Amino acid sequence: MRLSSPGLNHQSQEGEKKCLNSELWHACAGPLVSLPSVGTRVVYFPQGHSEQFIFLFQVAASTNKEVDSHIPNYPNLPPQLICQLHNVTMHADVETDEVYAQMTLQPLSQQEQKEVYLLPSELGTANKQPTNYFCKTLTASDTSTHGGFSVPRRAAEKVFPPLDYSQQPPCQELIARDLHDNEWKFRHIFRGQPKRHLLTTGWSVFVSAKRLVAGDSVLFIWNEKNQLFLGIRRASRPQTVMPSSVLSSDSMHIGLLAAAAHAAATNSRFTIFYNPRASPSEFVIPLGKYVKAVYHTRVSVGMRFRMLFETEESSVRRYMGTITGIGDLDPVRWPNSHWRSVKVGWDESTAGEKQPRVSLWEIEPLTTFPMYPSPFPLRLKRPWPTGLPTFPGGMGDQG
Amino acid sequence: MRLSSPGLNHQSQEGEKKCLNSELWHACAGPLVSLPSVGTRVVYFPQGHSEQFIFLFQVAASTNKEVDSHIPNYPNLPPQLICQLHNVTMHADVETDEVYAQMTLQPLSQQEQKEVYLLPSELGTANKQPTNYFCKTLTASDTSTHGGFSVPRRAAEKVFPPLDYSQQPPCQELIARDLHDNEWKFRHIFRGQPKRHLLTTGWSVFVSAKRLVAGDSVLFIWNEKNQLFLGIRRASRPQTVMPSSVLSSDSMHIGLLAAAAHAAATNSRFTIFYNPRASPSEFVIPLGKYVKAVYHTRVSVGMRFRMLFETEESSVRRYMGTITGIGDLDPVRWPNSHWRSVKVGWDESTAGEKQPRVSLWEIEPLTTFPMYPSPFPLRLKRPWPTGLPTFPGGMGDQG
DNA sequence: ATGTCGGCCTGTCGCCGACAA
DNA sequence: TTGTCGGCGACAGGCCGACAT
After folding, report:
1. Peptide bond into B169 cis (omega under 30)
2. Which residues of A are less than 8 Å from B95 in CB distance?
3. CA of B147, C1' of D6: distance in angstroms
4. Scanning every residue of chain B, which has its alpha carbon at the shortest distance from the alpha carbon of A242?
5. Upper half-sphere CA count for residue A33 (Cβ side, 13 Å)
6. Could you read off the pLDDT of B132-162 as tens digits, one per residue?
7. pTM score, two decimals?
8. Which GO terms describe its molecular function (chains A, B) (predicted)?
């Protein structure tokens, strides 16, 4: 994983030269977000990329008919492109501190595209969340101008340097760096009755500079080099609708697809951006993960599965569900695509907001107790998969 | 000119529903900016649109080689497209208040493209600057937190409602609306020794909300309906580089061209944005203006001309220059284009910052005293124009 | 253990005319 | 005519422990 982009990166869109702190980036991105490694092969889904775009711009959310009428077809652009991943850089939006990643992809040759299962592939590295960190959702008192920031006791003792409790009151100056490498100074004091940890002087300028409101989260990291970092996670999904005022969203949408099509046709590099927290589409998948899920796993309607989700406390938990159907999400524009090809139902009724479609590599099928035959009377007109290469076997165990 | 977009506009990118004040928009845009009328025919230059894009993103400013390697060629996209102008809406950036326009264009058929000179065409309406308005560049005192806004005496007497001078001190509340239809209240008072007009209470919140700094300009308009409006013009060109974080600038650039090419191929509508103050590229030209300049005007190397520019006081003045060459700006990508095909030199040495290339419709050739033969020993290898349709004559006088 | 509040001090905001350019 | 400044009053910002949950 490259953290900086010294020269090779032909497009430093933001002029960002600094080396972003990887731990901090991942802490802000959350426990479920992982990035594929530089030099490996990945599967890029223009369909998913398109989905992120539509989500970010909130255009034609429900009526995809709208899209169809403006966006030309790219018949030579397959629903997935096997690519060499040449570069990955972590970024943070200058205005909002929202984390995102930039990747440089190069599609493999037409021939190699068809021999996916013969390629050496990796499952991708697990995302390492930092150990010495805490994340707190800001209260009304934390963000009001009336006072400072109340630090949870355990958090302060774990990630802040120890105070000299012989002083009265114990007090020190904390210096923390954000994703843009800006320094923020806070007065850390242990006072009150009962005693508690507080950040006072310096806190309000941070809140106003980052435009934090109650409900947003702030996180502190104490790394091995005894450096302190801080990041933010906004509660309200940005949804800034981003009034481009430069290019129509149609043109951008066309550009997204045309750039991929052009790169696929010429086997040349192209650049994409992945916004993990802004949109729920993870559209660049390690090749091994894809191959394992698509070629080594047998799923069918009625099968039970588990899937990971992030909790509000930024940890992970598993939700259970049942496969209710398998088929194309968009049969017209993206036929025979594995992108969100699995229709599912969720066990918990409160999980009604969860997406009704998932991709194979997102789920963990429970093969030990398959509920088979299916209690669902669903029957696909066209068996799945169809027209896809059959896995010839012989591939080693991938874990 | 349509000011609102009630339904017909298929793409309200910003969700903006309000009807922007046309006078205010033009006042903010400046005296040189005019928009073609809805329903007329215009000439769209993808090359100029591309230039605006590159300017706004500051990518590959000097080395166009960079662009060439990433952006595919669109051989079927001519350097200019004659279009029907279906819609024009005025907008202002939510963050910066920067004015821009959205236009919906529909390319004419291939056949009509070649018969430009046979089409009925209009020169476009002149831009009407409001009469009752004033514009002041903010001083350090105006923007400091120490005091309010010092209103120039003549300006206050002309555009503000008259004060009741029997009161001591004379004082009133002003309510002005900005481009987003937000209300701003100011206390207008006439006091001090010597007496002067001041805006006190309410001014500082306006300055901080709009993030105004010394050097920026604010303007007030008093219209016929006795309504007060205010707008801003920032001194520092935004140059925000706009860290997209959604789409790579390459993809956007491709999208710009691909959208135009797709629209040209299918004679379908497409949408563009024009940022008059952010970039110096006016790339949608009334057809009549284009026809007159390209087919009715004879220019040659050595010819003298005048061209309008905006002064710092937001009025206009003419600068003189001499044509030093005629030829393609980008012979490889846009051969036989009229976009900035005229190389010029400017009389005033202080005008060294002025662009070295202009388009025919931007200049006023001085045919009364042509400096011919040319004092410049320039000689074009390929005479200009070449391969362009010869004007058959018979077209009526266009002004 | 920690969110919110009243008390209270203080620094900055912001209104005023003086003065000068 | 108007830009900047010193003066100074008002008020919001912000540090404190009390108190409740």
Report:
1. yes
2. 243
3. 13
4. B14
5. 23
6. 999 999 999 999 999 999 999 999 999 999 9
7. 0.84
8. DNA binding
